[in-house]
Amino acid sequence: MEKKLPIMCPGCGGSLMVKSLYCESCETTISGSFSLPLFLKLGQKEQDFIMEFVQSSGSLKQMAKSLKLSYPTVRNMLDDLIEKITQLKTEDL
Amino acid sequence: MKPSKLFNPFEEIAGAKALFFGFVVMLITGLTGYFSFTHFPDMISIKYIPEYLPLSYYFVQQVVIWLIPSLIFYVFALIGSSSSVRVVDIFGTMALARFPYIIAAVLGFSGSMKRFGDYLMALFMEHDTTATISTFDIVTAIVVMFLMLLLTVWLVALMYNAFRISSNLKGGKAVGLFIAGLFISIIATMLVNIWLYGLWA
User: Fold this and answer.
1) Helix or strand or coil: residue A46?
2) Residue ranges per structural domain of chain A
3) pTM of the prediction?
4) Do the Cβ atoms of B113 and B171 come closer than 8 Å?
């Protein structure tokens, strides 16, 4: 089973930071305080949407066809995603 | 088919495809209405008028009750939405949203509505106390009226979803603009239809 990367604190709902990174081959552990990349702060569905968007060469029409959704539905999903990214960027500042 | 698709098929169908099916819906509704004497005097009303009018009148009426609301909702979408709104989405989904009224046109074939109307006219307008009607006609007319009410609710829900999806509006803004658009559309289509009826009748 693929583990989901938690991005929100289950206790208080706040944003999580990366405290340590581990190398499996040499077993080195790096400790510190790193913020998550913006892409990882998005939900799984939103990440999948971006991947699909890139794979469709940014064509919403092609995406709508492959997802079996109407063009305005896909465009609305993109607009909502743009809004969320803008919001996350503002929060990071 | 999922029940949600009956009220919101626009997540999957919009644009030119919806416009094509919408035109088919309007053709069927107009043709059925011609034979069943079912009129649509404004965007949401259904009326039974047993009077001969040419087929072209029924088709033009269908175009009027689709074109005017589509135009009004398109302007409202441009005003309220920050997304890019495509004309074909608004006009297409608004056309397809009219599919419940095919059933309304079919319900017009029920003679009970006419007999119930004639009975009420005789009783209350002409004070004819000898007027009679069968229990079957009363029950059928009430059932048909109730079904027509449900069809109107269905149509309005479809139109709201058509507007919401095509314009990417949400919450109070979507509801507010839709209610305003609906109100203006009803008045505008009613006035144009009165004028049209005068031309043909």
Assistant:
1) helix
2) 37-92
3) 0.87
4) no
C-alpha R_g of chain B: 18
Can you tell me the distance from the alpha carbon of B45 to that of B131, in angstroms, rounded to the nearest whole number?
28
- Any CB–CB contact under 8 A between A84 and chain B? no
- Whether residue A73 and residue B86 make contact (CB cut-off 8 A), yes or no, is no
pLDDT tens figures, A12-31: 988 889 999 999 999 999 99
CATH class of the domain whose range is A37-92? mainly alpha
Domain limits for position B130: 3-200
Question: Which residue on chain B is closest to A73 by alpha carbon?
Answer: B11
* Amino acid at residue number B53: L
Total domains present in chain B:
1
Q: Which residue of B has its CA nearest to A71?
A: B14
Tens of pLDDT along B115-138? 888 888 888 888 887 888 888 988
Which are the contacts of B65, defined by CB distance < 8 A and separation ≥ 6?
B40, B42, B43, B98, B189, B193
| Dihedral angle sign, alpha carbons of residues A64, A65, A71, A73 | negative
Average pLDDT over residues B57-65: 96
Assembly ipTM: 0.84
